[in-house]
Amino acid sequence: MLLQIYQYTRVVTAYESVYTLVLMAFDRYLAIVHPIRSISWRTARKTAVVVAVTWVNSHNDVIPS
Q1: How far apart are CA 27 and CA 34, in angstroms?
Q2: Mean pLDDT throughout 39-65?
Q3: Does 2 reside within a domain?
Q4: Total domains, the chain
Q5: Per-residue pLDDT for 1 more than 90?
Q6: Which residue, among 20, 3, 8, has the nearest Cα to 61 in the 3D structure?
Q7: CA distances for 6 relative to 10, 15, 35, 62, angstroms
Q8: What does the DSSP assignment read for 28-43?
Q9: Is residue 42 included in any domain, yes or no?
Q10: Is 0.85 surpassed by the pTM of this model?
Q11: Using CA atoms, how far apart are residues 65 and 14, in angstroms rounded to an integer?
Q12: Residue 3 falls inside a structural domain
């Protein structure tokens, strides 16, 4: 059981790392290409929601079908 939890956690964090890097790249794209418009898009609340969605998404990706 402990090994299964370890493997699950390892895969989830690997997926989350990739998603986080993609989101960081998208954030930098918005800041560079749309500096004025992106100020209203990039808020703390929206960031928290996107991070929560990526964690849920990474958990859903790992669950066996």
Answers
A1: 10
A2: 91
A3: no
A4: 1
A5: no
A6: 8
A7: 6, 14, 41, 13
A8: HHHHHHSTTTHHHH--
A9: yes
A10: no
A11: 19
A12: no
- Which of 61, 27, 63, 59 has the alpha carbon at shortest distance from 44? 27
Per residue in 21-40, pLDDT (tens digit) is 999 999 999 999 999 999 99
Residue 15 DSSP SS3: helix
**Distance between CA atoms of 2 and 10, rounded to whole angstroms?**
12
The three-class DSSP label of residue 1 is coil
Which domain range does residue 44 map to?
10-59
Q: Which two tokens stand for residue 47?
A: 């960031």
pLDDT at 14: 94
Q: Which residues contact 62 (CB under 8 A, 6 or more apart)?
A: 8, 11, 12, 15
Collect all residues with Cβ–Cβ distance below 8 Å to 61 and sequence separation of at least 6.
Answer: 15
